[in-house]
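Section 5.1 Outputs to date
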Amino acid sequence: MTAGPATRIPAPDAEATGPDLTGAELTGGLNGWSTTASADAGVDEMVLLDGPLGIVSKAMDERDTSLIMPSGTSLAATWDPALVSDIGQLIGQQGTERGVSAILGPNLNLPRSPLTGRGFEMFSEDPYLTGVLGAAWVEGVQSQGVGSCTKHVVANDTETERRRMNSRVDPVTLRETYLRPFEAAVRSANPWMLMMAYNRVNGTHCSQHSDLINILKKDWNYDGVVVSDWYGVDDTVAAARAGLDLEMPGPARYLGVHFAEAVASGDVPEARLRDAVERISRLADRAGRRTGGAVSAPARLRSPEEQRDVLGKAAAASFVLLENRDNLLPLDKSGIRTLAVVGPNAAKPCFQGGTFATVRPEGELVTPLDAIHEAFGPGVEILYEPGAVPTSAVSLTELGSTAPDGMPGVLLEVLPHASGKATDEVLYSEVRQASSFVWFGPVPGLGAGLPGRARITARLKLESSARWTLGAGGTGISSLTVDGKLIMEVPPPAPDDVMGVVARAETQQITLELPAGEVEVVVEMAFRPGRVQAITAVAAPEQASDPLTDAVAIAARADAVIVVVGDEQGSSRESADRTTAALDPACDRLVDAVAAVNTETVVVVNASRAVLLPWADKVKALLMAWFPGQEFGRALASVLTGSTAPSGRLPVSFPARNEDIPGWGVGLDAELTLDYAASEPMGYRHFQGTGQAPRYSFGFGLGYTEFALVEAVAAGKAVQDTNAADGVEGVGVRVTLRNSGHSAGRDVVQVYGRAAGETGFRLMGFASLDVGAGDTAEARIALDPLGFRRWDAAASAWTVPAGEWELRAARNAAEDGILCRIAL
């Protein structure tokens, strides 16, 4: 169901003396996912769907599926632009097949802290690496005739109070660090859209920030569409004058017809409207959405088998081997009769965080446990115990619920507003395979802009009485009923946090004793008119026994143990930050206990962020697996058995403790301002400046062979454009790498640079080299021209520091490497 037609703004007749308002309707969205068409401008509707981990359902419908792509951090761990571009091509192809004009992604914000709730979407703490890989993703997507809506400009790395908070960032840090990935993407790949962030920067909301938008449109000569984040506008004149082109979602509250009115009244220049209409029309040209226009053919279409191959390759390439004592990996199958697999993520891996961009997986999902069974074959006894239980309640359908008619799932119903008297009239009824539902705009059977009720009814079969946690929530007043008895009422969310509650699928929970047999659980939510409605029901049974004991028992009698731990889907989430970088304490206890009874322990961490690893010295092998997409299971088995060698490198620094995190202990002040000065420079530059040693350094990673740098020599002749904003061309470093091990492998050589007088090094180039056993290989690493620039805040201009530059070739940011120099 779609929203009604937008208000049409007629073009003035030939004799009119007023401003030309043709196409103004284009500047406001039509509904939650589409832009408005304009017959006068010759532009059709365009569908904008969320990413970047896959194509999201318009209606948040679990039956509307797509492939789950590797997370941003996982892709960054490959340090492979070509492979990242292939992943972009896959999601672009899926967009083409679904009639999508632009995908909301990639997320080029920087995980300033591992505590940021949405860090899994982001690539790297380094702006250069983020920019290179982000541009590759954009190129891949747009090769399919689908646009990238690159997000979120800018300094949007805090989820707490994200719609109201203010990021206070000095001009140097803003230009050199947080805007840098977006600039690189615009220069290299020219994404068709750029999304402005919710937050304020130095006091002004990003969608209404003329200084920021001028950087995009004037300094970078960006010719695409500048769009708000969904519901990210609150002032017509401020947004229009600042340079915002499109307000989403629709129907528009501030642009669209309101933009036209502001121009007609003289509050906004007509030229500003013409700029917005021209940019949106250009997007339609690029996406093949011009009325009567041709649609460009995708650059390449991959078969389903080829798509799975690319996903598997990307997953395996992202895994970072952090420890491999006594060369435990790859596991020698001939020496293993009994293999213990423990950890909750082995049977229920985490593929993504909890956001509006949650993807419903397409096709087969092979868990790590299933893939390990397949890889080791019938000759190896494989034992499994979870060892720890989820800390959060889950969907009723995951617990085997049925609808009242006995069909698997839950019964979802929509009813009219009660109007002071009870009514059982049902406007919409369907058995669904989820128990959390979101509707932007129209509610099924009811429509948009009306009060009503939504109801979830589910039956659970209990073999014996037990204590359960049940939860209910939504955008209105919610109630929880068990076997006809009202158990709990939940108040509606605060008006300024409705979107946060929806993003978090937030519930209020209660623990109670449930009897043996069939139990009926009903969650009903009464809602007022609103732009978004949601209802959620969750549950979790209390564990009758200690799962840790059973896991330790099988670990003690096994020849080797694979522990798979990490995050749950809701533990990394939109609209909420973390309080610690640690894994769930139950996961840490599990690893400690297993390592104490079996020395041959491999730990796989399924978390797409920098995590604390207090037990890293107690286990022989440690593999960081991130959120690697839906080919996780097979890719992991391939690396564990040696069919594929791990070649990923860390795109983020791993602290040894929370207190080592940049800006630890500093949050929003009373005015909801976050002062970036407390955390800058962040990432590996923070560790360089403080002298603290990270647990594992940015750029670090092992393989199944040994590498050493032999030589590094500065090469090329520096050529500076007359415009310092373009940096310095022609500088490179020629490196020689030796593989001194007994198998072929891939290594990533990194070059860090610093100008005369600077104390810290910054990444300026990298290259991956495949080297045979006992061989050497050479590469010329071209250095990033923009890496030579520095922002002069007093002059409000870029400059290139003259003098001798030090260039350090190394295999990670903490390694001394080989130093060479070049004069500018």
